[in-house]
Design a protein that fits this description.
Number of helices of chain B: 14
Helix content of chain A: over 70%
Number of helices of chain A: 13
Strand content of chain A: under 5%
Structural class of chain A: mainly alpha
Number of strands of chain B: 26
Number of strands of chain A: 0
Helix content of chain B: 25-40%
Shape of chain B: globular
Largest sheet of chain A: none
Radius of gyration of chain B: 23 Å
Distance between the termini of chain B: 40 Å
Largest sheet of chain B: 8 strands, mixed
Radius of gyration of chain A: 24 Å
Structural class of chain B: alpha+beta
Strand content of chain B: 15-25%
Oligomer: heterodimer
Chain lengths: ~325, ~525
């Protein structure tokens, strides 16, 4: 899926960075179309009958038939797909079976809430992990490196829900009582209106992502620091700060951006667990609820949102990699 | 997923109620029964009210288990548990159940009288107004009952009020309504006390404004998240309620709910898990509220399907259960053991039938008498309500002692096409009095007759019809006892236990009744939030 920069590489392509971006956008769209087919097919394969799930045990044959008609469940699958995909293109994700209201209305506020949580986690974890990773490489095998290595290994091994629950026990319910255990966002309210309430969910996500990025940043930096051009720069007599900033860091960032992108995209999935722990009103909670209600339009919409996020983040990572890697830039 | 039981009319894990105890209390009048005036409370176990001096004001924050995008607010229907909490904030019923599960005239009706077996008269109290200032009158009652009777609305009360003829409800005067039934029915009073048969104003719709007579009116509502209810300043019960606002928050995850309570973000929560009870007790500012529930998770043997078409096998299976052990393992002891009979709160419940205990020797002998030693059976279950899967597994291990192999089939699509067609399955039911329960689950016309009860040779149905038509409580109890005896001796249900409703709350909240016979959590949510308050 990814074009790994700096890899074996094909013949140099022409058109410069603009054509590259255009090409990647078109590829991304193709991926989204394929994903939409997979998502649609997968949700069709979910066990159980949505009409029965909605009506529960009170379902009578007549009410089941009426509801199936209303939900277009009687149409051929291909036609259902086309109706749905056309709707998506017009920004209409359909109506939620369970809530009986447009999916966009159901998800609108939740999407903002989740996006804000991801943004906060990203803004903290990315600079933090680049910083920690770089210094760990720079001070290789010294105490800082040994400690971060150990700590990141531990946090990388712990699932988010363990970290989340531990933070709640530590800061909210048992040891200290200084932070709220759950995030209550009143309807119509925004998460940034109560920053204290999002500290723990943000921290959980930061702890989930940072270890991976730190480790890849360190590895990448170590490799770069041992490279000929860094040695050359040092031999040239450049000040160490300049060597690091101008030569080492940009080259080490390339692979790191890819890992950051994958991790941020992973966050979009990991956020489901975190939202669950903190009762956070985001798309994760909506997804869980929709799956148990067989609320297919909502499941499909959220799957498409997460897929879209993957595509966008990968695109951004590729562009960023190209921009920080002169070697790749000039080959375009 | 397990947190949201699949709904069935009238049943949530904690629910419905009732019986016409008031008829017994009120005595039998010539030609009919009169329910009038607040009846003296005469209970065997008196629930205790949690103390403190009431203080006005404050925002009461309640966390309710479950909920999601299927949430609704409707004065006459619920789909999720938070819906129950929201319904009782805004809507009230004509009659009410007290903490001893007795029907009382503390609701909107001044009296409810059975004039004749098929005629009931409802007389409203004076001076009750809806949230929009409109006075409650006979027309609203007629509209409410017609809405419940309309099968197209899909409301819970429809089945219970099946005998009501919607075209034959007459307005006697502004405060009096007469119901002329299609057939004799002595359970109308019970139905009018069901929390989901709330009184709504003429023209009410779910999509429209939520206007009831309750202590709190809806200010905002977001499905799957929370609702805010503000004090009804012109509430008809003078001096009540106490809180300025009530905020009801959905919690799909019970661990988050407990954490919110421990960290003081909510003031009360429904359904604290057994493992967390001691944690909450160890907090000096938290307390546990335990109500006696009458929810049940029967193991259902279809009496016309092998091997259960032989009554010896059914009796053997009932004798294989170690009820105390099952209660401990499934509900950590928070409940009472049962005797294979439902509706324990019904005044006509026959407590004189001997309690069944595990008797493996007798079970083996019955099985061998039936020629069914070393039986192998499938037991179908699903994660539909707490305890359904555990009960099945524990039964399977207990049955081994009698040489019976029970293969538990946990099927996510249990409530699909095979439901009600299985020889042996686990189901769940809420609290309901005997005759309404029979109408729902124990006669051929019942929508959920898992056991295919009764046997064609028995006089059960004729007893049921006589009981339904019998306005005299004593005579009706005799008929019900005969029905219960038939089920006790030949029935297909194994009912090992009834579980309690166990909730937790902050001790700064007062006014809850502990130990009440409750159909809804938290002492029926502090009786529509009107009895509870922050203590000063």
């Amino acid at each position: 899926m990814l074009e790994r920069p700096g890899g074996t590489g094909g013949p140099a392509r022409t058109g410069g960075i603009r054509m590259f971006i255009l090409r990647r956008i078109l590829q991304g769209l193709l991926v989204l179309v394929l994903v939409s087919i997979v998502v649609f097919a997968a949700t069709q394969a979910l066990p159980g009958d949505p009409a029965r799930a909605i009506l529960g045990r009170g379902a009578t044959p007549a009410s089941l038939a009426a509801l199936r008609e209303q939900l277009h469940l009687n149409q051929p699958v291909v036609q259902q797909y086309l109706t749905w995909a056309t709707g998506l293109l017009h920004g209409d994700a359909g109506r939620s079976f369970a809530a009986q209201e447009p999916v966009s209305k159901l998800l609108g506020d939740r999407l903002v809430n989740t996006a804000f949580l991801l943004l906060c986690s990203g803004l903290i974890s990315i600079p933090l992990s680049i910083l920690i990773g770089s210094y760990a490489a720079l001070w290789r095998d010294r105490p800082f490196d040994v400690v971060t290595s150990l700590v990141t290994l531990v946090f990388a091994a712990l699932p988010e829900f363990v970290v989340g629950v531990a933070l709640v026990v530590l800061f909210a319910t048992t040891v200290f009582h200084i932070l709220p255990a759950i995030t209550l966002i009143p309807p119509g309210g925004r998460p940034w209106e109560q920053p204290i309430a999002i500290i723990l969910p943000t921290l959980t996500l930061v702890l989930a992502v940072t270890p991976y990025v730190v480790r890849i940043m360190r590895a990448s930096m170590v490799e770069v620091l041992e490279s000929d051009y860094v040695e050359m720069a040092r031999l040239k007599g450049l000040p160490e700060r300049l060597v690091l900033r101008r030569h080492a860091l940009p080259n080490a960032l390339g692979p790191t951006f890819q890992v950051i992108a994958i991790n941020l995209a992973y966050l979009a999935g990991g956020v489901i667990v975190v939202e669950y722990i903190f009762n956070y009103a985001g798309i994760g909670g909506a997804l869980r609820d929709a799956v148990s209600n067989r609320d297919l339009p909502v499941v499909q919409a959220i799957a498409m949102i997460i897929a879209g996020l993957y595509v966008v983040l990968n695109l951004l990572a590729d562009i960023a990699t190209i921009l920080v890697t002169p070697r790749l830039r000039t080959r375009l | 997923m397990a947190d949201t039981p699949i709904e069935r009319p009238g049943d949530l894990t904690a629910t419905a109620l009732t019986r016409r105890r008031l008829l017994i209390n009120a005595g039998v009048l010539a030609g009919g029964v009169m329910l009038a005036g607040p009846l003296a409370a005469c209970g065997t176990s008196t629930p205790t009210s949690t103390g403190g001096t009431p203080k006005r004001g404050g925002n009461f924050r309640l966390g309710v288990t479950g909920g999601g995008s299927g949430d609704i607010i409707d004065g006459q229907k619920i789909t999720t548990k938070p819906d129950q909490a929201r319904l009782v904030a805004g809507f009230e019923t004509l009659l009410e159940y007290d903490t001893n599960y007795k029907l009382q005239t503390t609701g909107l009706a001044e009296s409810v009288t059975q004039e004749a077996p098929d005629k009931w008269v409802i007389r409203l109290k004076q001076g009750i107004t809806f949230h929009n200032g409109k006075t409650l009158g006979a027309d609203d009652v007629i509209y409410s009952l017609r809405r419940i009777s309309d099968p197209k609305q899909g409301l819970f009360g429809t089945a219970g009020l099946a005998s009501v003829d919607p075209n034959n409800i007459t307005k006697v005067d502004d405060r009096t309504v007469r119901l002329n039934l299609k057939q004799a029915d002595s359970t109308i009073g019970d139905q009018l006390g069901q929390y989901y048969n709330g009184v709504v104003p003429v023209g009410y719709t779910r999509a429209g404004e939520q206007i009831g007579t309750g202590a709190y009116k809806v200010q905002s509502f977001t499905k799957g998240q929370q609702s805010v209810h503000v004090r009804n300043t012109s509430y008809w019960r003078s001096g009540l309620p106490y809180f300025d606002t009530v905020t009801i928050i959905d919690f799909p995850d019970v661990a988050a709910q407990v954490n919110a309570l421990l960290s003081g973000q909510i003031d009360a929560m429904t359904d604290i898990p057994a493992a967390q009870i001691s944690v909450a007790r160890s907090h000096s500012n938290l307390a546990i509220l335990e109500g006696q529930g009458a929810d049940w998770r029967p193991l259902c043997m279809a009496i016309d399907m092998p091997p259960f078409d032989d009554n010896n096998v059914r009796q053997a299976f009932r004798l294989m259960v170690d009820r105390n052990a099952m209660l401990q393992q499934v509900f950590s002891g928070h409940g009472r053991i049962a005797n294979d009979l439902y509706s324990p709160f019904d005044p006509a419940y026959d407590g004189s039938l001997p309690q069944r205990h595990q008797d493996i020797a007798q079970a083996k002998s019955l099985l061998s008498k039936a020629g069914k030693s070393n039986l192998v059976v499938d037991l179908h279950t699903t994660d539909g309500a707490a305890g359904m899967v555990d009960s099945a597994n524990i039964f399977a291990s207990q049955a081994k002692l009698a040489g019976v192999t029970v293969n538990v089939k946990n099927d996510p699509n249990y409530y699909g096409d095979q439901y009600l067609k299985l020889a042996f399955s686990v189901d769940f039911w809420g609290t309901r009095n005997f005759l309404p329960q029979v109408a729902n689950g124990s006669i051929p016309t019942a929508p959920y007759n898992e056991c295919h009860w009764p046997p064609s040779s028995s006089n059960y149905i004729s007893l049921y019809q006589q009981a339904l038509a019998e306005p005299n409580a004593g005579k009706r109890a005799d008929l019900i006892h005969q029905m219960q005896k038939l089920e006790y001796e030949q029935g297909g249900y194994i009912i090992p236990m009834f579980n309690n409703l166990v909730d937790a709350y902050s001790t700064k909240v007062g006014g809850f009744n502990n130990g009440s016979k409750a159909t809804l959590n938290l002492d029926s949510f502090g009786h529509g939030y009107r009895n509870i308050y922050f203590t000063s």
